[in-house]
Amino acid sequence: MSSLQYYKPDTPQLWVGDCMPFYHDGLFHLYYLLDEGHHQALGGLGGHQWAHASSPDLIHWAHHPLALAITEEEERSICTGSVYYHGGVYYAFHAVRRPDWSQRLGIATSVDGITFAKQPVPSYAEPPAGYDPLHFRDPFVFYDTAGGRFHMLVTAKYLDHAVPALGGCLAHLVSDGLRQWALVKPFLIPGFDDPPECSDLFEWNGWYYLIFSNRLQTRYRIARSPLGPWLRPALDLLDGPWSRVMKTAAYHDNRRIGAAWIGTRTGGSDTGKFQWGGHAVLRELVQQPDGTLGVKFPHEMVPASGAPLPLPAAALTPGTTIDAGCIHLEAGDGMAAASVAGLPRNAQITLRGVPGRGAPRFGLRLRETTPFADGVTLDLLAAAQRVELHDAALDPVDGLDAPFTLEIILQDDLIDICLNDRRCLINRCPQQHGDRLTLFCHTGSVTFADLAIRPLVDS
Known about the structure:
The chain is mainly β. The protein has one helix at 41-44, and strands spanning 14-24, 27-36, 49-55, 62-68, 77-86, 89-97, 103-110, 117-118, 131-144, 149-158, 168-175, 182-188, 197-204, 207-214, 217-223, 244-251, 255-265, 274-287, 293-296, 313-315, 320-323, 326-341, 347-355, 361-370, 373-381, 386-389, 392-394, 404-411, 414-419, 423-428, 436-455.
């Protein structure tokens, strides 16, 4: 099939869970947890298995048989892990959830990255003394060239921490050859009240990055050494709160691709709680000069679209002028707005924005039925350095007082935005079906130029 952006399996009760991207020998692999019924399979223990798709170009994808399936009585879920290639062998490090909710580690090997054989339970599989038996999962392996050793990071809870409630950590094991591992002191104790999940560590242009998630939100730290010390950037979220548990992989031409998922909402409501498992969300990482990270849409995975639609904008308020494709909103100390009708349900929207001096708040309202009724608000809050999309937000986001670009994908109930090719925010609003777009400015002024609305086409 074509793009895996916003993908889920065709079967209604099956969804995409934690993603484990991996790149080797010109092929990008997406291993992911195949979820049934939003974590409710096998008595609520998950029943997850590793599904697998691969692509040479992020455009054309092949789906493969399950990479890791449940085959043993104790396996109530094959949990998240990582794939590592060494000496002609693909190693699938993973975790197993058992009937009593305890967890252990496991390993499977392959010569082609497609067909894996489970190996005997390793000696390091069980949580060591001083660690909570209910938290020992998500193994990630990397090699430190300077130290000449392999390292494994494991989601864990360190009971001997000075503040046990804050003992969620990345347990740390070391090895000379991927078979025998020795426990050393915890790699990171970030100070949250839940263990850091689904870690990922890589080097990129002289910087080292440690990625982990807490409460399913993907965070990162930065260092000059693979072993730290780790610094927290001002905005440590890689994406918005509903883009869950991102992990990354290298890609050709010094690029890096992240993969996450966005859940569905209970009751089909815009305010429904997000459920476990949903649609795949892929991002391309962007590295700033100071080493901090952003994300953007991978250009290969933007849904195909048609020609721009001839949808003229109409002024809604005084102070609004529309000329030669530019919409200028002069709000003064009030509100100025313009509206466009006839938007397709599934569409790509692109524009350039130029804020006036001191414009604190402007943005777009999507899928309205009438102006400022129903719909979803995308707020660009320049004064607050914050971006909001319904009940998702990013802050601090700098540069909102300067010219910007904006790309929006509307696909079914998903709304996905990319700002300046370095910040993304996704949400799910199933109740909104309007066909209107309103552009607004609240005090001050802003100009929206090059507005183009293209219908998405089935690929």
